[in-house]
Specification:
Strand content: 25-35%
Shape: flat
Number of strands: 21
Number of helices: 15
Largest sheet: 10 strands, mixed
Helix content: 25-40%
CATH architecture of one domain: Alpha-Beta Horseshoe
CATH topology of one domain: Leucine-rich repeat, LRR (right-handed beta-alpha superhelix)
Radius of gyration: 26 Å
Distance between the termini: 43 Å
CATH class of one domain: Alpha Beta
Structural class: alpha/beta
């Protein structure tokens, strides 16, 4: 395999004509993957500076013309992309870019774009780009013409601030055929920043928007999407979206109902649309959530009791919030509908009404357990004690090992009965890291109750 071969060459040198011939074979050099998936994240294969420098200085200049696909991790991306020209590169995958590395990597690249030769981070043959960016301005840089043949752009926006600094560029982006934008956080200035950018994509055929947007006085519904998006893009033939619009409610009258929102999508005849509206009286806010089904949104925020039926395979991060209690059946539904969730955050201060029995009663017991097979992070700091029982009782919830949990110390102490309760012991033993909030005391009983956990 290519990885084994390149490591052999990097550490031992090319000592035969046969190896030299192999490394220049397009079968090996057209698709270069230097990331691997392990422990729920991507890792860089080129961890040795010696290997990286040898590859960058001795191998890349000879094979760069043959490279068509690159899969890189940020720690090596900068030096590799600057090492040579890649005239035939048309797919670039950048993985494991969190907020810190995105700021460093893309800030460096943005400055380099104007200070060094164009080969630093530009291409006349790149066709597909899938990236995470820290700022909206960096998305605008990507679309300023440096990738003249780019036809597919998939962007995950890390920062939620949409800036108008660079929107004076009104030049049409003619080659772009597919554009997908997602952001985990709530964004503002949708009309001032995002819509003008989309209008520049006059030849766009496929558009995906996966966003949570603050609005002033009107939800983003079917009528809005038809008027401000669909009708403005004459070549558009596929529009997928997952849009949650948030609005502060003061003294408004005639707020739209679920039926009103559904009616606004009556012209979306060839796509299944799921939509609903929620009002949170205590917080004086409302939300309208509408999405094409099946949704490809990785985030599902502020799920209430009216969570719609369906299977959401792409969702990895969810938050649950309601001013009414969540019963056990709700958690079973969530765990089945979102089978691959990795992070769960819950806020609910209302006690459950229908408490479940904790005893093994019959052979259907397994069907009453909420199973979270891929859960990694659980945030249950701002909740009623009933929901701590919900997740820590092994008679109600199952999850694998290596869970990271955030929880209030006093609540945990109450539910576990000073760290002596048997029904919570099994799930607590699966936790490998715990963040305690509020007043806390580190007794031996606490450490014994979480034998595998680092306690903060």
């Amino acid at each position: 395999n290519w990885t084994i071969l390149i490591y052999f060459i990097l550490f031992h040198g090319i000592k035969s004509k046969r190896l030299n011939k192999i490394i220049h074979d397009p079968i090996f050099t057209s698709n270069l993957n230097f990331v691997k998936w392990s422990a729920n994240k991507f890792h860089n294969k080129l961890t040795s500076n010696f290997a990286l420098n040898r590859f960058r200085l001795q191998i890349l200049p000879d094979i760069s013309i043959k490279v068509k696909w690159f899969y890189l991790e940020p720690s090596s991306a900068k030096s590799i992309l600057r090492a040579a020209d890649y005239p035939n590169l048309y797919v670039l995958g950048l993985y494991n870019i969190n907020e810190k590395t995105a700021r460093r990597l893309f800030t460096d690249f943005v400055s380099l774009l104007f200070d060094v030769p164009s080969r630093s981070f530009s291409s006349s043959s790149l066709l597909v780009l899938n990236i995470k960016v820290q700022h909206f301005s960096q998305l605008l840089y990507v679309l300023d013409g440096r990738f003249s043949q780019l036809h597919t752009l998939i962007v995950d926006l890390i920062n939620n601030v949409l800036s108008t600094d660079l929107i004076e560029n009104k030049e049409k982006i003619l080659n772009l055929k597919c554009f997908v934008l997602s952001c985990a956080w709530e964004v503002t200035r949708y009309e001032e920043c995002l819509l003008p950018l989309i209008y520049r994509m006059s030849n766009i055929e496929k558009l995906g928007l996966y966003l949570t947007i603050y609005v002033n006085d009107k939800f983003i519904d079917g009528n809005d999407l038809k008027k401000n998006v669909i009708n403005r893009l004459p070549q558009l033939n596929l529009f997928t979206f997952d849009i949650r619009s948030l609005m502060f409610i003061n003294n408004q009258i005639n707020l739209p109902s679920k039926k009103d929102i559904e009616e606004s999508f009556r012209d979306f005849q060839y796509t299944k649309i799921i939509s609903y509206v929620d009002y949170f009286r205590e917080k004086k806010t409302g939300q309208c959530h509408a999405f094409s089904y099946p949704s490809e949104m990785p985030y599902y925020q502020k799920i209430k009791n009216n969570f719609p039926d369906g299977l959401y395979r792409y969702v990895r991060f969810i938050s649950l919030y309601d001013e009414y209690p969540f019963e056990h059946e709700f958690f079973i539904k969530i765990s089945q509908s979102i089978p691959f969730m990795e992070r769960l955050s819950l806020i609910n201060h209302q006690s459950q009404i229908h408490k479940q029995s904790y005893k093994l009663i019959n052979h259907n017991f397994n069907s009453t357990i909420a199973k979270y097979n891929y859960l990694i992070t659980l945030d249950i700091e701002e909740i009623h004690d009933d929901y701590i029982e919900e997740f820590l009782f092994n008679t109600k919830t199952y999850f694998h090992n290596n869970i990271v949990i955030s929880i209030n110390y006093k609540s945990l102490e109450r539910v576990t009965r000073n760290f002596t309760r048997d029904v919570t012991r099994i799930n607590c033993a699966k936790i490998n890291e715990i963040f305690l909030s509020g007043e806390k005391r580190y007794f031996n009983s606490l450490r014994d109750y979480f034998p595998c956990a680092r306690i903060h």
